[in-house]
Design goal:
Layout (H helix, E strand, L loop, with lengths): L3 E8 L6 H15 L2 E8 L6 H11 L3 E5 L6 H11 L4 E5 L9 H5 L8 E6 L6 H18 L10 E5 H6 L9 H11 L4 E6 L14 H23 L8
Parallel strand pairs: 1-2, 1-4, 2-3, 5-7
Antiparallel strand pairs: 4-6, 5-6
């Protein structure tokens, strides 16, 4: 039987992308689900993202708009998206569509042998500095949290309902991708990975590489590491199956 699917898009100033993202979900989800919902999380955008989200929700009951009163960050937007989801399978991806949503079709069959399916980029060109930062960050996350995946931060993650309910997420910023996977490992859930062709942003501006965002990531990483160590001492940490 086809599952029910929630897909959510955290969005900040994505007025140029929001309609295309929702339409892409409408095109793919009817083929692979018996029921679905599309959740737009507007993180206090300063453009028309919130207005368009409300228009899309008013026009189709399968679309939900969740609004933050103030800009809180990617982590808070993802937590709101997970909290608003109600279906058996939950898909997270970015509002600028970093990949074809048809990859959800490839992910679903793997959920029989895994609890989480994540994508890793096979095509992405980065400048030297960002490439060094990305490689160092992935190495650090693997070393600290036993997360053995190829691409920690890529915004294509498919969760089963038990995983969504088990994760105790607290990050407000961009450490959230690593925190989700650390929680998956801590609870002993199984991860599968699929290769994905990355689609570069064609509209809007990413804010994730700003220095203050990077500093926030490392602050949240340290706090989670301390929390995990406390849980581990209490017997609450488990290796991934």
């Amino acid at each position: 039987m086809k599952p029910t699917i929630s897909i959510f898009f955290p969005m900040y100033n994505e007025e140029e992308n929001i309609r295309a993202s929702v339409e892409a979900a409408h095109q793919v989800l009817p083929e692979i689900s018996r029921e679905y919902e599309i959740i737009i999380v507007n993180d206090a955008s300063e453009d028309r993202t919130g207005q368009i989200a409300d228009e899309l929700a008013a026009a189709d009951a399968r679309v939900k708009a969740v609004h933050h009163a103030k800009n809180r960050g990617l982590g808070a937007a993802i937590r709101s998206g997970l909290g608003a989801s109600r279906c058996e399978v939950v898909v997270y991806t970015d509002g600028d569509l970093p990949c074809d949503l048809g990859y959800i079709k490839e992910a679903l069959p793997l959920l029989g042998q895994a609890d989480v399916v994540i994508g890793y980029r096979t095509t992405r060109r980065e400048n030297l500095l960002r490439g060094i930062y990305t490689s160092a960050y992935n190495f650090l996350i693997r070393a600290l949290f036993r997360i053995r995946v190829r691409d920690v931060n890529f915004a294509f993650k498919v969760f089963t309902r038990p995983v969504v309910e088990a994760m105790d997420l607290r990050s407000e910023g961009s450490f959230i991708d690593a925190e989700m996977l650390a929680e998956v490992v801590r609870h002993g859930f199984r991860i599968e990975q699929i290769p994905i062709i990355y689609t570069p942003r064609v509209a809007g501006v990413s804010t994730l590489a700003k220095p203050r965002i990077i500093l926030r990531i490392f602050g949240e990483m340290f706090r989670y590491w301390r929390r995990e160590r406390r849980l581990s001492r209490k017997g609450g940490s488990h290796e991934s199956r």
